[in-house]
């Protein structure tokens, strides 16, 4: 059982929540990024640096993830790929990706990409709120308790 983190875009506060949970429970925690990350010195927490390039970190996570694992990401296509492998995925706001909703989320993502490509200005997601952080910590604790 491992928690994999798509770490290039992961908010610092979420990384801190994950590290505290890993230190408390002993679960293996792996941050995957194409940049050097500093992580706490603990036998169950590590950073895996991959080469720079489009989807290199995503591909590495998808290659290594197992059905008993959890992915932390904001990347909907990556979440879809790991759900297909039987793993679970959670975003930074504590929302679980599911097989029942991932197709609709991919469709909306693609639609928004098309709008942006055609010059339409779209707003990004709102900043991470305290309620989002609490929802994330709560969902993480639920996942850890089930293990």
From TrEMBL:
Query: What organism is listed for this UniProt entry?
Result: Chromobacterium indicum
InterPro entries, alphabetically? UPF0178
List the protein's name: UPF0178 protein VA599_11935
Please name the Pfam families in this protein's record.
DUF188
**Which protein family is it in?**
Belongs to the UPF0178 family.
Q: Which PANTHER family match?
A: UPF0178 PROTEIN YAII
């Amino acid at each position: 059982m491992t928690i994999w983190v798509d770490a290039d875009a992961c908010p610092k506060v979420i990384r801190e929540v994950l590290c505290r949970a890993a230190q408390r429970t002993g679960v293996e925690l792996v941050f995957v990024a194409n940049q050097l990350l500093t992580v706490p010195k603990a036998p169950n927490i590590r950073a895996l640096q991959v080469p720079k390039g489009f989807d290199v970190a995503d591909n590495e996570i998808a290659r290594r993830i197992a059905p008993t694992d959890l992915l932390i990401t904001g990347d909907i296509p990556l979440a879809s790929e790991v759900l297909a492998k039987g793993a679970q995925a959670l975003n930074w706001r504590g929302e679980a990706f599911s097989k029942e909703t991932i197709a609709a989320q991919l469709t909306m993502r693609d639609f928004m990409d098309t709008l942006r490509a055609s010059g339409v200005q779209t707003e990004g997601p709102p900043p991470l709120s305290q309620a989002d952080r609490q929802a994330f910590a709560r969902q993480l604790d639920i996942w850890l308790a089930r293990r």
